[in-house]
Design goal:
- Helices cover 40% and strands 26% of the residues.
- It is built from 23 helices and 26 strands.
- Helix 17 packs parallel to helix 20 and helix 18 packs antiparallel against helix 20.
- It is elongated, with a radius of gyration of 40 Å.
Length: 727
């Protein structure tokens, strides 16, 4: 039986918060005395301890902790008569509590006893486990990142890279700040050397954040587009110390954007520039006020409608393509050639020697057109008329030159076609004053021209905007009005692909919006919907009644008669669609309209999905930081080699608002220039900080921070426990 405490002894022990217990040093640690706090902490009565454990404290310890408990007791007794341990103890309800126990050995040769004090650490250990899992999650995310991480030390002028540089480029990185710029950036595309040098200059001056897109050569002598982001870190005196950043592979994105830009600039049939791009390139050149002569040709195929009607549209398309190829042969790469209408072309010649040379070029073009198809088995006569205006006499900007060349074209047509006419103010002034230009009117009404302008305009909106969602809303209205549809919209799928949400919608006048009714819509209601896009990612249905009953019911409920939808794909994953509905009756979309709407859909998809991915990544980082900030422990990370702070959670910043990333931990927390003698990395498990009057139990673990070795430090506040222990 346990020794009965006197009233005085029992009163004294019960004044001590937590659990107090005295046991023999007999290998089983037989309990001799205890206070009410000990019994309350674990839920047993004195009788239950005697009956269930025969008063042997070792039997109360979690089986998985007993061996370590015995080893730690032996190890610490070899160094003195005090013990400081942490382990799990069984409670009456069958659970285990994590406890921190401090014990002192006393007695004589006849009998030795331990006097032990217990504190409940269950909540602290649970919080530590949650933190461990969250940090492990963070480390997994960092290790899976395909981005290259770098750090540039300004003082040493050295740059360290993460190991995936070698994996990405096939050779080890090299940096020597003493090299000339040409050698320093030898792996960068020549056109990107200066932008990269400017980013480095800005970082060294102390600019907080910088971004640049550059091309870096790999071991196969291929250039890869990369986005380099750099953030500057500062000393306590706000002096720039280093730049830390990432190198992201954006090659696929860049090439896709360039391909889309090229497709937006070029006419699909002839490969020439469309009207908008022709105007942009020629106008940009003229804005520089060149000191040489330039020439503008407006070319129109004579009687082209007869060619189409007599030989068919396919033959007509072949004629236009051959004319375009012929014009390319007679011009230089620096010149601008465009298809500005159905059968109208424009050529802008730069740096012409004389006005006479421009007229000679017009004659060569006429000869080319006239003989282009005479060698065929069934010769076809194709002729063209040309209007010519010359810079600087006929105009000093694109619009003025175009207008004069257009008037000259009318003159050539009116004089019998198959000839050229140069703009003459005296002869053509009257025609100009009455505002007549047959070609200008034809171009203004041409569908191809409008479509080309539309795609280029859509691309520019998306490329320049800072708000993709607002841009998509604007584009749906522009496209909807351009093609006179009833409704234009975007649906985006959930991560699982089970549901879809109508995220953007524009409705024409008199059409009821459906967006509010089509949120979180399950695909299981319309089985096989993704299969509708198997034909080049486009689903076109002239009559919705030809679909399955479930699909027909879905469209009928929205008043849809005909629909055209283009799938959104992220890689091979179907993640939504862009649609255009007709609710006023059946509609037949032609091939050109389908192609135009598909291209617009691809443009929107590229930018919209990129924005959604960026939003998801930002949300993940916010969640991880929130997890760390919610921990009831002082948590920070330091670089192994120099004790530099890499991260501080919110509780640490609340304790010391002056601590910042970039400072050393001993400077930030102890005001010391050199590392502390009681540094936990040297074996200390409990540390006192006189600046804050705080005792902390310290645990640490090694980890990787980018390509650097680092430690994660976890400090549990035990100030109250130490105060009670001292009292």
């Amino acid at each position: 039986m346990l020794k009965k405490l006197s009233r005085e002894e029992e009163a004294i022990l019960n004044l001590i918060p937590g659990g107090v217990m005295q046991c023999r040093n007999d290998g089983r640690y037989t309990i001799v005395e205890m206070n009410e706090g000990f019994l309350g902490m674990f839920g047993f009565t004195r009788e239950e301890l005697a009956e269930q454990f025969q008063n042997q404290f070792l039997a109360m310890i979690h089986p998985a902790d007993r061996q370590n408990f015995l080893m730690e007791v032996d190890r610490q007794l070899n160094r003195g008569d005090r013990l400081s341990l942490s382990y799990r103890i069984l409670c009456r309800d069958g659970s285990y509590k994590w406890t921190a126990s401090s014990a002192k050995l006393f007695g004589n040769e006849r009998e030795e006893r331990f006097f032990c004090i217990f504190l409940d650490l269950t909540e602290v250990r649970d919080a530590q486990e949650k933190l461990r899992l969250s940090l492990e999650h963070l480390e997994i995310i960092m290790n899976q990142s395909s981005d290259i991480i770098f750090e540039w030390d300004f003082a040493a002028d050295t740059i360290a890279y993460s190991p995936n540089w070698l994996e990405k480029f096939g050779y080890p990185p090299h940096y020597d700040g003493s090299l000339p710029k040409e050698e320093l950036f030898c792996h960068f595309h020549p056109e990107d050397v200066e932008p990269m040098a400017e980013l480095m200059r800005e970082a060294k001056k102390g600019v907080a954040n910088a971004v640049v897109d550059v091309r870096i050569r790999n071991a196969k002598d291929q250039y890869i587009w990369c986005r380099i982001r750099a953030a500057t870190q500062y000393s306590a005196e706000q002096r720039p110390l280093r730049a830390v950043g990432t190198i992201s592979d954006i090659d696929e994105e860049k090439r896709l954007v360039e391909d889309l830009r090229r497709r937006a600039e070029l006419d699909a049939l002839t490969g020439l520039y469309n009207h908008a791009e022709t105007e942009r390139r020629a106008g940009l050149y003229l804005e520089g006020r060149p000191e040489t002569i330039c020439a503008m040709f407006i070319i129109d195929v004579d009687n082209f409608k007869q060619v189409n009607d007599g030989q068919g549209h396919l033959f007509g398309d072949a004629v236009l393509a051959e004319l375009a190829a012929g014009m390319k042969k007679l011009t230089r790469k620096s010149d601008v050639i465009g298809r500005i209408g159905g059968d109208e072309f424009a050529i802008f010649l730069k740096d012409v020697p004389t006005a006479q040379a421009a007229e000679e070029k017009a004659l060569k073009l006429l000869d080319l057109f006239q003989h282009l198809f005479q060698g065929e088995k069934q010769p076809v006569e194709v002729t063209c008329s040309i209007g010519l205006a010359v810079y600087p006499w006929d105009g000093r900007d694109y619009q003025a030159l175009y207008h004069c060349a257009d008037l000259a074209l009318y003159q050539a047509k009116s004089q019998g076609k198959n000839q050229y006419a140069r703009f003459d103010e005296k002869r053509m002034g009257a025609m100009d004053r009455i505002g007549y230009s047959s070609l200008g009117a034809a171009i203004d009404s041409d569908q191809n021209t409008s479509g080309g302008n539309l795609v280029n305009y859509v691309f520019q909106i998306l490329y320049d905007t800072a708000d993709i969602d607002a841009a998509v809303d604007a584009i749906l209205e522009i496209v909807g009005r351009r093609f006179d549809v009833s409704r234009a919209y975007v649906f985006e799928n959930s991560a699982s692909g089970e549901y879809t949400d109508n995220t953007h919608e524009w409705c024409n006048e008199g059409i009821l919006p459906q967006k509010a009714l089509l949120q979180h819509y399950p695909y299981e209601k319309v089985q096989g919907y993704e299969e509708l896009f198997r034909d080049n990612a486009v689903f076109y249905c002239r009559d919705v009644h030809s679909l399955t009953p479930a699909q027909t019911a879905l469209f009928e409920s929205q008043g849809i008669c005909s629909t055209l939808q283009c799938a959104l794909y992220h890689g091979k994953r179907f993640c939504g669609f862009i649609g255009f509905d007709e609710c006023t009756g059946l509609r037949m979309w032609n091939k050109e309209e389908i192609g135009m709407l598909s291209l617009v859909a691809q443009l929107v998809t590229t930018f919209l999905l990129k924005k959604r991915e960026a939003d998801r990544n930002e949300q993940i980082m916010v969640q991880l930081n929130t997890i760390l900030d919610m921990q009831d422990a002082y948590i920070y990370a330091i670089r192994k080699e120099n004790y530099e702070l890499l991260y501080l959670n919110q509780k640490t910043l609340q304790l010391d608002p002056g601590a910042r990333v970039g400072m050393t931990c001993h400077r930030a927390f102890f005001g010391r220039e050199l590392p502390c003698e009681t540094c936990p990395l040297r074996g200390a498990t409990e540390v006192y900080n006189p600046q804050y009057g705080v005792w902390a139990r310290v645990r640490y673990s090694a980890m990787k921070w980018g390509d650097s070795d680092a430690y994660l430090i976890n400090c549990a506040d035990i100030t109250e426990y130490k105060r009670l222990q001292g009292s």
